[in-house]
Each structure stands twice: as C-alpha cells, then as structure tokens.
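Session log. Operator J.P. requested a structure for one protein chain; no other inputs attached. Running the standard single-chain path with token output.
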Amino acid sequence: MGMIDKEKCVAELFEEYKDAVLNAELPENAGGYSFVKGFGNATSSVVLVGEAPGKDEVLQGRPFVGQAGKILTHFLETAGLERDNLYITNIIKYRLAREGKRAGTLANRPASAKDIEFSAPYLKREIDIIAPKVVVTLGNVPLKGFTEVSGMTGINLKDHHGVLLEIPGESKSYLFPLYHPAGTIYRPELKTVYDADLVRLNEELARLNG
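Structure written below.
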C-alpha cells in the first residue's frame, strides 16, 4: 500500500473513531471531545505512540507540539531519527479533560480503563495500516492498550522498558516500550534510564535496517 492509500485509510479510520467516541458510553469529559489525528510519514518504519493530546496539540491539531514538542526533539536527537521519517500518534485521540481549578478552564485528567479499552483496537488498526517495523510506546497507557489488543501477555514497563519485543503476527514487527519522558520530571533518576533506552533504540533500529 502506497503513502496516499495509507493516508486515506488512516483518515477514514480517524473519522470512524470520532463517530464511535461520540456515541460511546465513556467517562465524562469536560468541555466535550477535542480530537487530534496521527501525523507524519504514513510509510514510516517507526511509529511513536503517546497517551493522549494535551492543550497545545488540540490548538494546533497535531500530536507532540508545544511543550510536548521539546520531548519529541530530544527523542529524535538521542534516537538518531528525523521527524520526516516518523509517524506519531496517541492511543487516545481526544484530550482527556476535567474542570480546572479556575472557572471556565480545563485541566488534563488521567486515562481511565474504559478510555484505554475503547481506543486500543483503533490504535491497532491504525498501526496495521502504517505497517512499521517498530512501534515505540511512551509510558504505561499506550503499552497496556497495545499489548492487550496484540495478544502480548505479561508485558510491563518496569521489566520491559528498552527491550525490543516481537509482536505476534504474520509480519515481522517489534514493540519497544519506553518510560514516558514526562515521568523524568517527577523522577529525575529515570532520566538516565530513559536516555540509555533511547540509545538502545538507535542501536536496534540500525541493526534492523542493516
């Protein structure tokens, strides 16, 4: 499937997802639903999966911009990747919102089990369309959702971060779990671990592409 066909299929899937969300019984989301579609090279060999879009992503209509863009820049530099060669998405494609402390404002809320369970099959279909060699998950939420719909049991972030794991199926593809980079802000000791995992990702990609 060529890039144009893949982009069309991803766009159609996104519209299907939005309609399904609006008709589903999901946890209350303050301010309604603001959606952000996956973005990037639809023929990429690497897909980066975050949790959900935040305020900046909603405003600009793209994942990993604003404050999250700084995270992406560090990711790309350390892993030896170029943004033009990457496809970026989130498992949950709407902002997870609750009422903010000030009247009329919104704040991010944690993903519920129902949010993850509902969105994971759509992520799997999106990744099947892109058909990358490696799926990189950031944090527990995309890891949990993707492994559950991919038939990968017993996978957890503590034991499997920075490890290349084969995804069951006919095509030879792999999962590479990473801690969420935002976690390094609250747990500075994870910064060294996260950076070492990115270097290992660089090495694994070089090996796969060699």
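Operator note: Residues 78 and 195 are 7 Å apart (CA to CA).
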